[in-house]
Structure formats: C-alpha cells, structure tokens
C-alpha cells in the first residue's frame, strides 16, 4: 500500500483541527466529512483505511452506520466519546467491539499515536513513492525528477502525491481541493488548476514516462507509460 488515507467526522467545524494537522505531519492523507452522507460520498470516491468519528452521545444509528461500512470494506474505526455516557447502556459494548475508542478530553497527540499503532499493525506504511524517474517524499516534502531535486511548494507535493497514489484513477477538482486543501479552504478549484500547471512544468523531463491528464470539466488522472 502506498500512503494511508483517513476520514475524520467532526461534529463542530475545526474541532479536530490539531488531530488532522498531526496526522498530515505523519504523512497521512486526511479528509474531513461533515455528516454521514458526506462520509459515504468520500468512501465512494476513494476508500479510507481509518475512520475517526466523533460521538456526542451513544448514538445507535451512528454505531450501526459504522458497522455497515465495516461489513463492506476493511476499515478500522476510532470512536471519540464523551466521558459521561452510562456504563449500563446496552450499546456501550459496541464501542469495545470497535478497533479503538478514546474518551474525552484527550490530547491530539494521543489520537495520532493510536492511528499509527493501527497502521503499523495492519498496513504497510509508505511515506515515499520511489519510481526510477520520480521520487516523492511526503514526510520531508521533497520532490526528485530523474534524480534531480526540484523546488516545489508543500501543496504541490501533496497534490502530486495524491495523484500518484491514485494512479489511473480520475480525481475531480472538488475532490482534490477538499482532500489536499481541506473543506474549510475558501478558494476555488482554480487553485487546483494552477498547481497542476506548475507540476506539469516540473515533470516535463519525464513526460515520456508519466503524465497528468486532464478530463475536461471534471478533473485529473496520473498515468504512466
């Protein structure tokens, strides 16, 4: 597996910002979902390995929703729960059946460490894409083309990494804007177009090996020859 993808469902916008930033620093691709429908949409676009979900209370429907997703794909769920729910609640046992749950309040570093533990035990982590002609180090934000280091902005590297990890898959402009810049970003998809143009210029020397193709009106695909 190349890279790791996490979906965070937060009840209040920005509440888990520090968790998201900590995970990104560790090399994960993180997207934030606004509701259950948004979670499903993001899974359909590009399935994640871990779902971090914020519970304000013991929500039976939300728990069943988690298990419904887990029945269809390999998914690890981390539940963030309030410290005042009843020990006698019959649904509490379902939290113990999830991969992990963390009682509030917690430090963002604790969540990051729990995620790393799950990945180290269940997936092959990769911060590095190392092809003969292209090397992307997402952890140190370094880009090499034909062995030569290229100067690139962090978002350019994150965008290219996202495209390469999903080689031969069409990613929409909205999806790229959401997953690379975050849904709180107030810019438009024009931002994606500008960064793609810069990346194409940086990859000119290896255009015979790979290309970022445009699907007009939709998005982009990374392809190799």
What's this model, at a glance?
The chain has about 220 residues and is α/β, with parallel strands linked by helices. It has helices at about 15-25, 35-45, 60-70, 90-95, 110-120, 155-165, 175-180, 190-200; strands spanning about 5-10, 30-35, 50-55, 75-80, 100-105, 130, 135, 140-145, 150, 170, 210-215, 220-225. It contains 8 helices and 12 strands.
Note down, in words, how this protein is organized:
By secondary structure, the chain is an alpha/beta fold. It has two domains: 5-122, Rossmann fold (3-Layer(aba) Sandwich), CATH 3.40.50; 128-224, Arc Repressor Mutant, subunit A. Helix content is 38%, strand content 24%. The strands form three sheets. The chain has a five-stranded parallel β-sheet, sandwiched between helices. It has a four-stranded antiparallel β-sheet with strand order 6-7-8-9, covered by helices on one side. β11 (210-215) and β12 (219-224) form a beta hairpin. α1 packs across α5 (108-122) and α6 crosses α8 (190-202). It starts with a strand and ends with a strand.
Biggest sheet character: 5 strands, parallel
Q: Averaged pLDDT, please?
A: 81
For the record, the CATH class of the largest domain is Alpha Beta
- The total tally of domains equals 2
Order of helices and strands: EHEHEHEHEHEEEEHEHHEE
Number of strands: 12
* CATH third-tier fold name of the largest domain: Rossmann fold
Shape: elongated
The assigned CATH architecture of the largest domain is 3-Layer(aba) Sandwich
| Backbone structural class | alpha/beta
* Assembly state of the chains shown: single chain
- Beginning-to-end CA distance, first to last residue: 21 Å
CATH superfamily of the largest domain: Response regulator
Radius of gyration: 19 Å
Q: Please state roughly what percent of the residues sit in beta strands, choosing from under 5%, 5-15%, 15-25%, 25-35%, 35-45% or over 45%.
A: 15-25%
What are the low-pLDDT stretches, counting only 5+ consecutive residues below 50? Answer: none
Strand order across the largest sheet: 2-1-3-4-5
């Amino acid at each position: 597996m190349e890279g790791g993808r996490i979906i965070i469902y937060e009840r209040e916008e920005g509440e888990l910002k520090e968790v998201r930033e900590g995970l990104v620093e560790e090399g994960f691709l993180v997207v934030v979902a606004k509701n259950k429908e948004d979670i499903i949409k993001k899974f359909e676009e590009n399935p994640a390995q871990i779902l971090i979900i914020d519970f304000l209370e013991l929500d039976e429907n939300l728990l069943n929703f988690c298990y419904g997703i887990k029945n269809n794909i390999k998914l690890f769920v981390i539940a963030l729960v309030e410290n005042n729910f009843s020990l006698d609640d019959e649904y509490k046992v379902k939290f113990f059946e999830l991969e992990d749950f963390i009682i509030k309040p917690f430090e963002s570093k604790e969540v990051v460490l729990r995620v790393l533990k799950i990945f180290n035990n269940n997936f092959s982590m990769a911060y590095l894409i190392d092809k003969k002609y292209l090397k992307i180090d997402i952890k140190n934000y370094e880009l090499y083309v034909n062995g030569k280091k290229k100067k690139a902005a962090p978002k350019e590297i994150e965008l290219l990494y996202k495209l390469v990890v999903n080689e031969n898959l069409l990613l929409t402009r909205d999806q790229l804007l959401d997953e690379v810049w975050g849904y709180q970003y107030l810019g438009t998809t024009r931002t994606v177009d500008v960064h793609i143009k810069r990346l194409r210029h940086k990859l000119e020397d290896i255009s015979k090996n790979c290309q970022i193709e445009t699907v007009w009106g939709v998005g982009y695909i990374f392809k190799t020859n």
